[in-house]
Amino acid sequence: MSERTSMTILVTGATGNQGGAAARRLLADGWSVRALTRDPAGRAAHALAAAGAEIVAGDLDDRASLDAAVKGAYGVFSVQQGALGIQPVGFEEEVRRGRNVADAALAGGVEHLVYASVAGAERSAGVRAFESKWEIEKHILAIGIPATILRPASFMENFSDPAFGVQTGQLATAFASNVVEHSTSGTPHWTDSMAHCSPRPECCRTGPWSSFEARRRT
Ligand SMILES: NC(=O)c1ccc[n+]([C@@H]2O[C@H](COP(=O)([O-])OP(=O)(O)OC[C@H]3O[C@@H](n4cnc5c(N)ncnc54)[C@H](OP(=O)(O)O)[C@@H]3O)[C@@H](O)[C@H]2O)c1
Predict the structure, then answer these.
(1) 152 in ligand 1 pocket by Cβ < 6 Å?
(2) Is 4 exposed, middle or buried (0-12, 13-18, 19+ CB in 10 A)?
(3) Which atom of ligand 1 is nearest to the CA of 60?
(4) Of 62, 120, 174, 218, which residue has the fewest beta carbons closer than 10 angstroms?
(5) CATH number of the domain at 8-150, out of 3.30.450.40, 3.30.420.240, 2.60.370.10, 3.40.50.720?
(6) Portion of the chain with pLDDT greater than 70, in percent
(7) Does pTM top 0.85 for this prediction?
């Protein structure tokens, strides 16, 4: 048994996009993975179990279930749903859940917490969907648990989402209002403010795909 195999990483959001990818990567790298879900009988949980993960029932709003889930874990990968996404979650809800995971990890003596935040979390005044992650980051720093904070930018998977995608031949995104999405077409294209933009096509201005391609090449 390798050293990693004997070390358990609790993964929250394991049945979702980020947590699922993290769980699969950890398993592939030889770690023991404990996957948290509210639905241990669900398809995603079954797939994770088949891949070698231990499935544990838990709810990010239920601190006792998190305390039980972290028991004996070496590390925790923490990710929560946010205000953008198919099932949007409110600011307070996301912050509470992120703090709950960090607090449970600390109380459970976890050696290292990895928190999946978002790029620009620390400079996102006014963008509630990002401020929530900054609040969680600050809490993690304040409680003093050894931690790594990841700040991923926009994932490529967004382009397969009907709200953000390119299916119509148009590129739709939801970046901040002061971001020039692409300027090589000759007409600078300013995007809507994410603070006011739910991920629906009608809320997100669109621009020609060719312009995006041109910008990408420069
Ligand atoms: N898209 C991007 O470009 C991008 C970039 C940077 C950051 N992000 C951030 O990534 C984060 C995660 O997104 P995602 O797409 O991975 O999410 P997702 O696929 O919607 O996954 C949601 C996960 O959260 C779990 N969950 C939800 N409520 C729960 C609760 N009360 N208790 C326990 N588990 C709960 C679900 O598990 P069960 O249903 O199985 O319980 C599921 O595994 C978001 O905060 C988003 O802002 C996204």
Answers:
(1) yes
(2) middle
(3) 32
(4) 218
(5) 3.40.50.720
(6) 74
(7) no
